[in-house]
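RETRY 2/3 - previous attempt timed out on the joint model. Re-submitting the same 440-residue input unchanged.
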Amino acid sequence: MKIIKTFLLIILFSANSHLNAATKDCFEKVNRVTFAFNNELDKAIIKPIATGYSYLPNPVKSGINNATSNILYLITIPNDFLQGSFSNAINNTGRFLVNSTLGILGIFDPAKKLGLKKIDHEDYGQTLGKWGFGPGCYFVLPLFGPTTVRDTIGKAGNIFLDPFYMMTVGNKEILNSDFAERVYYIEKGTDLINYRSQNLKNLENLEKNSVDYYSTIRSLYLQRRENLISNNISDNEKDWKDLK
Amino acid sequence: MKNIIKFIFVISFIFNQSVFAFEKDAENFIIKTTSDAKNIILNKSLDQKVKRKKLEDLAIKVVDTEGLAKYTLGEERKKITEKQLAEYINIFKIFFSKNLSSKLNDYSDQEVSISGSKKISENYVLVSSKIISKKDKQEIIVDWRIFLVNNKLVIRDLVVEGLSLARTQKEEFASIIANKGFDGLIQNLKDFNSKN
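RETRY 2/3 succeeded.
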Protein backbone atom coordinates (compact mmCIF):
# COMPACT_ATOMS: atom_id res chain seq x y z
CA MET A 1 0.00 0.00 0.00
CA LYS A 2 2.85 2.34 0.91
CA ILE A 3 4.51 1.60 -2.42
CA ILE A 4 1.31 2.53 -4.29
CA LYS A 5 1.07 5.79 -2.31
CA THR A 6 4.71 6.63 -3.11
CA PHE A 7 4.11 5.89 -6.79
CA LEU A 8 1.04 8.12 -6.85
CA LEU A 9 3.01 10.92 -5.18
CA ILE A 10 5.77 10.55 -7.75
CA ILE A 11 3.21 10.71 -10.57
CA LEU A 12 1.55 13.78 -9.05
CA PHE A 13 4.97 15.41 -8.62
CA SER A 14 5.82 14.62 -12.24
CA ALA A 15 2.45 15.94 -13.43
CA ASN A 16 3.15 19.33 -11.91
CA SER A 17 6.39 19.87 -13.74
CA HIS A 18 6.14 21.32 -17.22
CA LEU A 19 7.16 19.18 -20.19
CA ASN A 20 9.90 21.53 -21.39
CA ALA A 21 11.14 22.60 -17.99
CA ALA A 22 14.75 21.57 -17.38
CA THR A 23 14.78 18.02 -16.04
CA LYS A 24 16.65 17.71 -12.74
CA ASP A 25 19.45 15.20 -12.40
CA CYS A 26 18.53 14.37 -8.80
CA PHE A 27 21.16 11.75 -8.01
CA GLU A 28 23.98 12.86 -10.30
CA LYS A 29 26.86 11.35 -8.31
CA VAL A 30 25.20 7.92 -8.15
CA ASN A 31 24.07 8.27 -11.77
CA ARG A 32 27.63 8.92 -12.93
CA VAL A 33 28.80 5.73 -11.20
CA THR A 34 25.93 3.70 -12.72
CA PHE A 35 26.63 5.27 -16.12
CA ALA A 36 30.31 4.31 -15.89
CA PHE A 37 29.31 0.74 -14.92
CA ASN A 38 26.89 0.50 -17.88
CA ASN A 39 29.54 1.92 -20.18
CA GLU A 40 32.10 -0.68 -19.10
CA LEU A 41 29.50 -3.43 -19.46
CA ASP A 42 28.72 -2.16 -22.94
CA LYS A 43 32.40 -2.18 -23.92
CA ALA A 44 32.95 -5.67 -22.49
CA ILE A 45 29.85 -7.45 -23.81
CA ILE A 46 27.33 -5.53 -25.91
CA LYS A 47 29.66 -3.56 -28.18
CA PRO A 48 31.75 -6.60 -29.27
CA ILE A 49 28.58 -8.57 -30.09
CA ALA A 50 27.11 -5.55 -31.93
CA THR A 51 30.37 -5.16 -33.87
CA GLY A 52 30.19 -8.79 -34.97
CA TYR A 53 26.52 -8.36 -35.83
CA SER A 54 27.32 -5.34 -38.00
CA TYR A 55 29.25 -7.61 -40.41
CA LEU A 56 26.06 -9.52 -41.30
CA PRO A 57 24.83 -8.87 -44.86
CA ASN A 58 22.54 -5.82 -45.14
CA PRO A 59 19.42 -7.82 -46.17
CA VAL A 60 19.79 -10.00 -43.03
CA LYS A 61 20.17 -6.96 -40.76
CA SER A 62 17.26 -5.25 -42.49
CA GLY A 63 15.06 -8.36 -41.98
CA ILE A 64 15.95 -8.54 -38.27
CA ASN A 65 15.33 -4.81 -37.89
CA ASN A 66 11.91 -5.14 -39.57
CA ALA A 67 10.92 -8.15 -37.41
CA THR A 68 11.88 -6.55 -34.06
CA SER A 69 10.23 -3.30 -35.12
CA ASN A 70 7.08 -5.24 -36.08
CA ILE A 71 6.74 -6.75 -32.59
CA LEU A 72 6.92 -3.25 -31.10
CA TYR A 73 3.57 -2.47 -32.76
CA LEU A 74 1.98 -4.48 -29.94
CA ILE A 75 3.04 -1.63 -27.65
CA THR A 76 2.60 1.16 -30.21
CA ILE A 77 -1.01 0.40 -31.23
CA PRO A 78 -2.61 0.64 -27.72
CA ASN A 79 -0.56 3.81 -27.13
CA ASP A 80 -1.79 5.31 -30.40
CA PHE A 81 -5.34 4.77 -29.09
CA LEU A 82 -4.49 6.14 -25.63
CA GLN A 83 -3.05 9.27 -27.26
CA GLY A 84 -6.11 9.67 -29.49
CA SER A 85 -4.08 9.13 -32.69
CA PHE A 86 -6.74 6.95 -34.29
CA SER A 87 -5.46 7.26 -37.87
CA ASN A 88 -1.99 6.14 -36.70
CA ALA A 89 -3.57 3.27 -34.75
CA ILE A 90 -5.39 2.07 -37.88
CA ASN A 91 -2.28 2.49 -40.04
CA ASN A 92 -0.11 0.60 -37.53
CA THR A 93 -2.67 -2.18 -37.00
CA GLY A 94 -2.72 -2.64 -40.78
CA ARG A 95 1.07 -2.70 -40.91
CA PHE A 96 1.26 -5.25 -38.08
CA LEU A 97 -1.33 -7.58 -39.63
CA VAL A 98 0.07 -7.42 -43.17
CA ASN A 99 3.74 -7.69 -42.17
CA SER A 100 3.16 -10.45 -39.60
CA THR A 101 1.43 -12.62 -42.22
CA LEU A 102 2.47 -11.71 -45.79
CA GLY A 103 5.75 -10.31 -44.48
CA ILE A 104 6.60 -13.58 -42.66
CA LEU A 105 6.69 -12.52 -38.98
CA GLY A 106 7.60 -8.99 -39.98
CA ILE A 107 10.86 -9.86 -41.76
CA PHE A 108 9.64 -8.16 -44.93
CA ASP A 109 7.63 -4.95 -45.28
CA PRO A 110 4.88 -5.53 -47.90
CA ALA A 111 2.66 -3.06 -45.96
CA LYS A 112 4.76 -0.18 -47.28
CA LYS A 113 3.87 -1.16 -50.84
CA LEU A 114 0.20 -1.12 -49.83
CA GLY A 115 0.56 2.51 -48.75
CA LEU A 116 0.73 1.86 -44.99
CA LYS A 117 3.54 4.20 -44.03
CA LYS A 118 6.14 3.73 -41.29
CA ILE A 119 5.44 6.02 -38.34
CA ASP A 120 7.56 6.43 -35.21
CA HIS A 121 6.76 3.92 -32.47
CA GLU A 122 4.91 5.05 -29.34
CA ASP A 123 5.28 3.76 -25.79
CA TYR A 124 3.66 4.22 -22.37
CA GLY A 125 6.23 6.85 -21.31
CA GLN A 126 5.30 8.93 -24.35
CA THR A 127 1.60 8.50 -23.57
CA LEU A 128 2.13 9.77 -20.01
CA GLY A 129 4.04 12.72 -21.51
CA LYS A 130 1.18 13.40 -23.96
CA TRP A 131 -1.26 13.35 -21.04
CA GLY A 132 0.73 16.14 -19.40
CA PHE A 133 2.96 14.28 -16.96
CA GLY A 134 6.36 15.95 -16.66
CA PRO A 135 9.53 13.84 -16.77
CA GLY A 136 10.34 14.12 -13.04
CA CYS A 137 13.92 13.36 -12.04
CA TYR A 138 16.48 12.07 -14.52
CA PHE A 139 18.45 9.03 -13.43
CA VAL A 140 20.45 6.11 -14.80
CA LEU A 141 19.35 2.53 -14.22
CA PRO A 142 21.89 -0.30 -14.13
CA LEU A 143 21.65 -2.23 -17.45
CA PHE A 144 18.66 -0.18 -18.70
CA GLY A 145 20.52 3.14 -18.98
CA PRO A 146 19.16 6.71 -18.94
CA THR A 147 15.57 7.32 -17.87
CA THR A 148 13.26 9.64 -15.94
CA VAL A 149 10.60 8.92 -13.32
CA ARG A 150 7.92 9.12 -16.01
CA ASP A 151 9.84 6.90 -18.43
CA THR A 152 10.52 4.31 -15.71
CA ILE A 153 6.79 4.02 -15.06
CA GLY A 154 6.36 3.87 -18.84
CA LYS A 155 9.03 1.17 -19.11
CA ALA A 156 7.12 -0.96 -16.59
CA GLY A 157 4.04 -0.57 -18.81
CA ASN A 158 6.09 -1.41 -21.91
CA ILE A 159 7.02 -4.73 -20.28
CA PHE A 160 3.99 -5.84 -18.29
CA LEU A 161 1.29 -4.53 -20.65
CA ASP A 162 3.04 -5.87 -23.76
CA PRO A 163 0.94 -8.71 -25.25
CA PHE A 164 4.17 -10.34 -26.46
CA TYR A 165 5.41 -10.47 -22.83
CA MET A 166 2.03 -11.65 -21.58
CA MET A 167 1.94 -14.54 -24.05
CA THR A 168 5.54 -15.64 -23.55
CA VAL A 169 6.67 -14.81 -20.00
CA GLY A 170 3.72 -13.33 -18.11
CA ASN A 171 1.17 -16.10 -18.57
CA LYS A 172 2.59 -19.49 -19.41
CA GLU A 173 -0.88 -21.00 -19.63
CA ILE A 174 -1.26 -19.46 -23.07
CA LEU A 175 1.78 -21.05 -24.70
CA ASN A 176 2.81 -23.18 -21.71
CA SER A 177 6.45 -23.62 -22.52
CA ASP A 178 9.88 -22.43 -21.49
CA PHE A 179 10.62 -22.11 -25.18
CA ALA A 180 8.17 -19.18 -25.41
CA GLU A 181 9.98 -17.43 -22.53
CA ARG A 182 13.30 -17.88 -24.29
CA VAL A 183 11.80 -16.43 -27.49
CA TYR A 184 10.90 -13.25 -25.57
CA TYR A 185 14.39 -12.73 -24.16
CA ILE A 186 16.10 -13.61 -27.45
CA GLU A 187 13.89 -11.08 -29.26
CA LYS A 188 14.64 -8.32 -26.72
CA GLY A 189 18.37 -9.17 -26.81
CA THR A 190 18.41 -9.07 -30.61
CA ASP A 191 16.59 -5.73 -30.59
CA LEU A 192 19.27 -4.32 -28.25
CA ILE A 193 22.16 -5.63 -30.36
CA ASN A 194 20.51 -4.40 -33.56
CA TYR A 195 20.07 -0.90 -32.07
CA ARG A 196 23.64 -0.85 -30.72
CA SER A 197 25.09 -1.94 -34.07
CA GLN A 198 23.25 0.91 -35.83
CA ASN A 199 24.95 3.36 -33.46
CA LEU A 200 28.49 1.97 -33.27
CA LYS A 201 30.14 4.87 -35.07
CA ASN A 202 27.84 7.53 -33.57
CA LEU A 203 28.51 6.54 -29.96
CA GLU A 204 32.23 6.10 -30.59
CA ASN A 205 32.40 9.61 -32.09
CA LEU A 206 30.31 11.03 -29.29
CA GLU A 207 32.56 9.61 -26.59
CA LYS A 208 35.68 10.70 -28.41
CA ASN A 209 34.46 14.26 -28.95
CA SER A 210 32.77 14.90 -25.61
CA VAL A 211 34.31 16.84 -22.78
CA ASP A 212 31.79 15.21 -20.46
CA TYR A 213 30.29 12.08 -22.07
CA TYR A 214 27.77 11.55 -19.23
CA SER A 215 26.19 15.01 -19.75
CA THR A 216 26.16 14.57 -23.53
CA ILE A 217 24.20 11.32 -23.27
CA ARG A 218 21.82 12.87 -20.72
CA SER A 219 21.15 15.83 -23.00
CA LEU A 220 20.59 13.63 -26.06
CA TYR A 221 18.29 11.26 -24.14
CA LEU A 222 16.12 14.09 -22.80
CA GLN A 223 15.96 15.87 -26.18
CA ARG A 224 14.98 12.62 -27.90
CA ARG A 225 12.19 11.92 -25.41
CA GLU A 226 10.88 15.51 -25.68
CA ASN A 227 10.82 15.20 -29.47
CA LEU A 228 9.09 11.82 -29.39
CA ILE A 229 6.40 13.11 -27.03
CA SER A 230 5.73 16.31 -28.96
CA ASN A 231 6.32 14.55 -32.33
CA ASN A 232 8.34 17.63 -33.20
CA ILE A 233 11.67 19.34 -32.57
CA SER A 234 11.03 21.04 -29.25
CA ASP A 235 13.89 23.48 -29.14
CA ASN A 236 13.71 26.94 -27.66
CA GLU A 237 14.17 29.34 -30.59
CA LYS A 238 14.35 32.39 -28.33
CA ASP A 239 17.70 31.13 -26.95
CA TRP A 240 19.18 32.04 -30.33
CA LYS A 241 18.27 35.69 -30.04
CA ASP A 242 20.39 38.17 -28.12
CA LEU A 243 23.77 36.53 -28.54
CA LYS A 244 25.58 39.87 -28.25
CA MET B 1 -6.64 52.77 -59.14
CA LYS B 2 -5.00 50.51 -61.69
CA ASN B 3 -1.63 52.10 -60.91
CA ILE B 4 -2.07 51.51 -57.18
CA ILE B 5 -2.86 47.83 -57.77
CA LYS B 6 0.13 47.58 -60.08
CA PHE B 7 2.32 49.24 -57.45
CA ILE B 8 1.12 46.88 -54.70
CA PHE B 9 1.64 43.90 -56.99
CA VAL B 10 5.19 44.97 -57.90
CA ILE B 11 6.09 45.71 -54.27
CA SER B 12 4.73 42.38 -53.01
CA PHE B 13 6.45 40.56 -55.88
CA ILE B 14 9.79 42.18 -55.00
CA PHE B 15 9.22 41.45 -51.31
CA ASN B 16 8.37 37.80 -51.99
CA GLN B 17 11.38 37.46 -54.25
CA SER B 18 13.69 38.86 -51.56
CA VAL B 19 12.21 36.53 -48.93
CA PHE B 20 12.61 33.62 -51.31
CA ALA B 21 16.14 34.76 -52.19
CA PHE B 22 17.22 34.60 -48.54
CA GLU B 23 15.99 31.02 -48.23
CA LYS B 24 17.47 30.05 -51.60
CA ASP B 25 20.81 31.62 -50.65
CA ALA B 26 20.81 29.64 -47.41
CA GLU B 27 20.10 26.41 -49.30
CA ASN B 28 22.88 27.14 -51.81
CA PHE B 29 25.21 27.96 -48.93
CA ILE B 30 24.61 24.49 -47.45
CA ILE B 31 25.06 22.80 -50.84
CA LYS B 32 28.38 24.60 -51.35
CA THR B 33 29.59 23.97 -47.79
CA THR B 34 28.83 20.24 -47.86
CA SER B 35 30.36 19.94 -51.32
CA ASP B 36 33.55 21.71 -50.16
CA ALA B 37 33.77 19.40 -47.13
CA LYS B 38 33.26 16.32 -49.28
CA ASN B 39 35.95 17.44 -51.74
CA ILE B 40 38.43 17.66 -48.88
CA ILE B 41 37.42 14.32 -47.35
CA LEU B 42 37.59 12.46 -50.68
CA ASN B 43 40.82 14.09 -51.89
CA LYS B 44 43.24 11.15 -51.93
CA SER B 45 46.26 13.36 -52.56
CA LEU B 46 45.94 14.91 -49.09
CA ASP B 47 47.23 13.13 -46.00
CA GLN B 48 45.06 12.94 -42.85
CA LYS B 49 46.84 15.84 -41.13
CA VAL B 50 46.34 18.21 -44.08
CA LYS B 51 42.71 17.05 -44.46
CA ARG B 52 42.01 17.81 -40.80
CA LYS B 53 43.61 21.24 -41.08
CA LYS B 54 41.56 22.07 -44.20
CA LEU B 55 38.34 20.87 -42.52
CA GLU B 56 39.16 22.96 -39.44
CA ASP B 57 39.67 26.04 -41.65
CA LEU B 58 36.39 25.37 -43.46
CA ALA B 59 34.53 24.99 -40.16
CA ILE B 60 35.89 28.29 -38.88
CA LYS B 61 34.88 29.99 -42.16
CA VAL B 62 31.26 28.78 -42.36
CA VAL B 63 30.28 28.47 -38.70
CA ASP B 64 29.58 31.43 -36.43
CA THR B 65 31.89 30.09 -33.75
CA GLU B 66 31.68 33.27 -31.69
CA GLY B 67 27.86 33.18 -31.63
CA LEU B 68 27.96 29.47 -30.89
CA ALA B 69 30.49 29.98 -28.11
CA LYS B 70 28.19 32.53 -26.46
CA TYR B 71 25.14 30.29 -26.91
CA THR B 72 26.85 27.27 -25.37
CA LEU B 73 27.83 29.30 -22.31
CA GLY B 74 24.17 30.09 -21.60
CA GLU B 75 23.42 32.28 -18.59
CA GLU B 76 27.02 31.93 -17.37
CA ARG B 77 28.19 34.50 -19.94
CA LYS B 78 26.33 37.20 -18.01
CA LYS B 79 28.26 36.34 -14.84
CA ILE B 80 31.82 36.44 -16.21
CA THR B 81 34.08 39.37 -17.15
CA GLU B 82 34.76 40.54 -20.71
CA LYS B 83 38.30 39.17 -20.39
CA GLN B 84 37.06 35.74 -19.32
CA LEU B 85 34.54 35.70 -22.17
CA ALA B 86 37.24 36.59 -24.71
CA GLU B 87 39.48 33.80 -23.38
CA TYR B 88 36.58 31.32 -23.49
CA ILE B 89 35.69 32.27 -27.09
CA ASN B 90 39.29 31.72 -28.24
CA ILE B 91 39.53 28.31 -26.55
CA PHE B 92 36.05 27.32 -27.79
CA LYS B 93 36.99 28.16 -31.40
CA ILE B 94 39.90 25.71 -31.27
CA PHE B 95 37.78 23.10 -29.47
CA PHE B 96 34.99 23.43 -32.02
CA SER B 97 37.17 23.19 -35.13
CA LYS B 98 39.01 20.13 -33.78
CA ASN B 99 35.75 18.52 -32.71
CA LEU B 100 33.94 19.09 -36.00
CA SER B 101 36.83 18.12 -38.26
CA SER B 102 37.22 14.89 -36.30
CA LYS B 103 33.52 14.10 -36.77
CA LEU B 104 33.54 14.97 -40.47
CA ASN B 105 36.67 12.96 -41.20
CA ASP B 106 34.81 9.74 -40.35
CA TYR B 107 32.09 10.31 -42.92
CA SER B 108 32.85 9.80 -46.56
CA ASP B 109 30.16 7.97 -48.49
CA GLN B 110 27.22 10.29 -47.90
CA GLU B 111 25.15 12.45 -50.22
CA VAL B 112 23.35 15.58 -49.04
CA SER B 113 20.02 16.51 -50.58
CA ILE B 114 18.15 19.68 -49.60
CA SER B 115 14.47 19.07 -48.87
CA GLY B 116 13.35 22.64 -48.14
CA SER B 117 13.83 25.69 -45.98
CA LYS B 118 11.80 27.89 -43.64
CA LYS B 119 12.41 31.51 -42.75
CA ILE B 120 12.15 31.86 -38.97
CA SER B 121 13.04 35.55 -38.69
CA GLU B 122 14.62 38.40 -40.67
CA ASN B 123 18.11 36.94 -40.26
CA TYR B 124 17.40 33.27 -39.60
CA VAL B 125 16.52 30.38 -41.93
CA LEU B 126 16.13 26.71 -41.08
CA VAL B 127 17.35 24.57 -44.00
CA SER B 128 16.18 20.95 -44.01
CA SER B 129 18.24 18.23 -45.65
CA LYS B 130 18.61 14.49 -45.91
CA ILE B 131 21.98 12.82 -45.64
CA ILE B 132 21.90 9.52 -47.46
CA SER B 133 24.51 6.84 -46.93
CA LYS B 134 25.48 5.23 -50.24
CA LYS B 135 26.52 2.03 -48.47
CA ASP B 136 23.29 1.05 -46.71
CA LYS B 137 20.88 3.69 -48.14
CA GLN B 138 20.14 4.90 -44.60
CA GLU B 139 18.69 8.38 -44.45
CA ILE B 140 19.37 10.91 -41.70
CA ILE B 141 17.36 14.12 -41.44
CA VAL B 142 19.56 17.12 -40.69
CA ASP B 143 18.31 20.69 -40.19
CA TRP B 144 20.78 23.57 -40.40
CA ARG B 145 20.26 26.80 -38.46
CA ILE B 146 21.55 29.49 -40.82
CA PHE B 147 21.90 33.11 -39.71
CA LEU B 148 22.77 36.26 -41.59
CA VAL B 149 25.49 37.92 -39.49
CA ASN B 150 27.19 41.07 -40.82
CA ASN B 151 25.78 40.33 -44.29
CA LYS B 152 27.36 36.89 -44.29
CA LEU B 153 25.57 33.55 -44.05
CA VAL B 154 26.83 31.40 -41.19
CA ILE B 155 25.84 28.09 -39.54
CA ARG B 156 24.99 28.18 -35.85
CA ASP B 157 23.57 24.72 -35.30
CA LEU B 158 22.94 21.29 -36.81
CA VAL B 159 19.84 19.43 -35.73
CA VAL B 160 20.42 15.74 -36.45
CA GLU B 161 17.21 13.67 -36.32
CA GLY B 162 15.73 16.28 -33.99
CA LEU B 163 18.80 16.44 -31.73
CA SER B 164 20.45 19.85 -31.59
CA LEU B 165 24.23 19.68 -31.44
CA ALA B 166 24.45 23.23 -30.02
CA ARG B 167 21.92 22.49 -27.28
CA THR B 168 23.75 19.27 -26.41
CA GLN B 169 27.02 21.21 -26.13
CA LYS B 170 25.32 23.89 -24.02
CA GLU B 171 23.92 21.32 -21.60
CA GLU B 172 27.26 19.50 -21.45
CA PHE B 173 29.05 22.75 -20.56
CA ALA B 174 26.33 23.70 -18.03
CA SER B 175 26.95 20.41 -16.23
CA ILE B 176 30.71 21.02 -16.10
CA ILE B 177 30.16 24.57 -14.81
CA ALA B 178 27.75 23.26 -12.14
CA ASN B 179 30.32 20.72 -10.94
CA LYS B 180 33.64 22.49 -11.47
CA GLY B 181 32.81 26.14 -12.11
CA PHE B 182 33.75 28.30 -15.12
CA ASP B 183 37.48 27.72 -14.54
CA GLY B 184 36.87 23.97 -14.59
CA LEU B 185 35.24 24.29 -18.01
CA ILE B 186 38.18 26.30 -19.35
CA GLN B 187 40.59 23.66 -18.01
CA ASN B 188 38.57 20.79 -19.53
CA LEU B 189 38.51 22.51 -22.92
CA LYS B 190 42.25 23.18 -22.77
CA ASP B 191 42.86 19.51 -21.92
CA PHE B 192 40.68 18.41 -24.85
CA ASN B 193 42.46 20.76 -27.26
CA SER B 194 45.91 19.58 -26.23
CA LYS B 195 44.94 15.89 -26.57
CA ASN B 196 43.38 16.20 -30.04
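The radius of gyration of chain A is 19 Å. Closing ticket.
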